[in-house]
């Protein structure tokens, strides 16, 4: 894993959270995007090369909705950039970490993603993300 790419924060109301973070950081979000497959609407802030991703559930059965119901708003995941997602998946599996999916999914911000189960990462949901490559 190359670097911490972003920190995901689960929020109940994306519009309100955007206002809070824009005031706190002194700049607006640079993107809002919906990832229908995950039942989430996201926004991104760039903070010195590290991104903050705010996540709002768009349906009650989404992972973010379940997270908020169980734990409340707050840090949802840490995302690490990788060069080769499939190779990294094989590597972490070999090391005993549990993946939440067998293959990558399309995520927000032009990324392919996969998550590691929090039970195998000391309670933290970890995302590995790779920039989508176009041919």
What labels would you give this structure?
135 residues; alpha+beta; eight-stranded mixed sheet; 3 helices; 23% helix; 39% strand
The major beta sheet can be summarized as:
8 strands, mixed
Radius of gyration of CA atoms, rounded to a whole number: 15 Å
User: Beta-sheet strand percentage?
Assistant: 35-45%
Overall pLDDT score: 94
Total strands: 8
What overall form do the CA principal axes indicate?
globular
Read across the widest sheet, the strand sequence of neighbours is 2-3-4-1-5-8-7-6
Low-pLDDT parts are: none
User: Helical proportion?
Assistant: 10-25%
Question: How would you sum up this structure in a few lines?
Answer:
This protein has 135 residues and is α+β, with helices and mostly antiparallel strands. Helices cover 23% and strands 39% of the residues. The longest helix is centred in the N-terminal third of the chain and has 12 residues, at 14-25.
Notes on the structure:
With 135 residues, the protein is of the alpha+beta class. The chain has three helices and eight strands. Strands 2-3-4-1-5-8-7-6 form an eight-stranded mixed beta sheet. A hairpin with a 4-residue loop joins strand 2 and strand 3. The two termini are 24 Å apart.
SSE blueprint:
Layout (H helix, E strand, L loop, with lengths): L2 E9 L2 H12 L5 E5 L4 E8 L2 E8 L5 H9 L2 E8 L3 H10 L10 E2 L4 E6 L9 E6 L4
Parallel strand pairs: 1-4, 5-8
Antiparallel strand pairs: 1-5, 2-3, 3-4, 6-7, 7-8
